[in-house]
Amino acid sequence: MAQVNVIHGYTASPEENWYPWIQQTADQQHYSLKVLRLDPSPRPELSVWESQMDEQIEGLDENSIMIAHSLGTIAALHYLSKHLAHQRIKQLVLVAGFNGRLGRLEEVYPFIDAAQIDFELLKRQIEHRVVIYSEGDDHVLPKFSIEQAQSLDAELISAQCQGHFIDSEGCTELPEVWQAIQPYLIPQN
Q: For residue range 76-120, what is the model confidence (pLDDT) as tens digits?
């Protein structure tokens, strides 16, 4: 079964930002999509997120799709680097992603520093890779997302939504993510 897993960002929850919209869109069109619930602490630990991801992700297969936002992109890349040694997946979509420290939010440095990411493995084992960024994102500057796309040989998409893709900045829908995954979705039986 093709499961789509969404990894939210820092201090977020499945009820915020564009996550309810993508959940509703998938439900209406009968696709299996789950926005994971991860520790919203202002000082998150990668090991905690990793165990929460293990509990909520129902296995990966060649049709799996992973979507991640902001700090969730670090968690997703780390998780997939550990789980894709002998498994391919269909797609990875990263929104406002980055590879390392951003020069702000020192409280997440330990989370970022703990991540072990194997870009060569990910390029081999993920069929289609996409990075979506905003020219108006002052949380994750476009240069960081562009660098991430280069690290993954990913398709790079500049979104219409400006800012960091959060509801407090008016982003409650993100059609670029849906457009990216739609060709790869398999309906539920």
A: 999 999 999 999 999 999 999 999 999 888 999 999 999 999 999
For β-strands 65-69 and 4-7, DSSP reports them as parallel
What are residue 92's DSSP bridge partners? 66, 129
Identify the H or E element spanning 139. none
What order of strands is seen across the sheet that includes strand 33-35? Answer: 33-35, 4-7, 65-69, 89-95, 126-133, 155-158
What lies within 8 Å, CB to CB, of 140 at 6+ separation is: 70, 96, 97, 98, 102, 133, 164
CATH assignment, 4-12+34-184:
3.40.50.1820
- Single pTM value for the model: 0.97
Domain ranges of the chain: 4-12+34-184
